[in-house]
Write the structure tokens for this entry.
Amino acid sequence: MPRPRFAADAGAAAHVLVPELSDELSVTGDDGHHLARARRLRAGETVTAADGAGAWRPYVVRAATRAGLLLSACREAAIEPALVPALVVAFALTKGAKPDLVVQKATELGADAIVPLYASRSVRRPPDEPRAAAATARLRRIAREAAAQCRRARLPEIADPVPLSSLGGRAGLVVAARDGATPDALVDPPGGEWVLVVGPEGGLDPAELEILGNPPGLAVGPHVLRAETAAVAATAALAVRRRSA
């Protein structure tokens, strides 16, 4: 039987992100509590672990304690294939928990990087430095949890929020738009990377589109979508166009 290329194909009971794939692992803290107490994993079950940079490895649970799990490797590490074209999701920030949802779902759909944006019709002013750092840390935590849930070996990069204008001139830009092309009509980006831009509710204004160089649009249906729905739908539309390198 061929060896799985993706941790998601290994048939393990759970997946965890760790700093290093050593022969023996002790999974404690929040991850250990979740696996031992919430998931109720027991000795003899299989767990996959990944380092977040693409390497993953299957382990057998040696013991489950109140503090977490003790794991022993049962195979050498493998490298999860990268997906091409690369996919960056740049979405306009909105209030409340909507950015959390976008990051969670974009991670599950395989985005390589996620960039929150300040746009003219969205949250425009960055918060003070401590609040901004806390917000970015929260999004990175959400991405990590989503990667464990969907059994990714590669963590997406979660960037600090930037002005939409910072994307001007970048190769591979495509904008989610009702009047855009269907996903199958888009050609692969010449630079090997799609940069999907999703505006706020109300969309991007003409000046912003001009700053971006009036990139091609990607249609995600005939209806007016909420900003977070458009981000998830457009990411999913590009995700099915990708393939293993």
